[in-house]
Amino acid sequence: MGDSAPPLAGAGSVTTEWPVAGLSRVMRHITGYNAEGKSIFLSSDSGDHHRVIGEKQAIGNIIYSTNATPIEINGEVDIKYAKENE
After folding, report:
1. What are the phi and psi torsion angles at 73 (to 5°)?
2. Helix runs in the chain, H state only
């Protein structure tokens, strides 16, 4: 028996690899400041923030999250929290 599942709507339009065929990868760049107060890239990734939705038909991107209001950014507390809890 063959696979009778319908093709994904975006199949072949952007990518055919993981995480979801037909959707482009999203790059996330996290910025901060160095000791001199100059802005720098702390990290870049293209997968740590993806959450697959449904049967590999969609992706949710968690670009930023925090557990506090106002946000605690000193010492990169917010970034450490997100990395440990995403």
Report:
1. -105, -10
2. 77-85
> DSSP E strands: which ranges in the chain?
28-33, 39-45, 50-53, 58-61
pTM: 0.55
55-71 tens-digit pLDDT:
777 888 877 778 888 88
Which 3 state secondary structure label does DSSP give 33? strand
> Residue 49's closest CA among 71, 26, 78, 72?
26
Helix (H, G, I), strand (E, B), or coil: what is residue 31? strand
In tens, the pLDDT along 12-47 reads 444 456 667 777 777 888 888 888 999 999 888 876
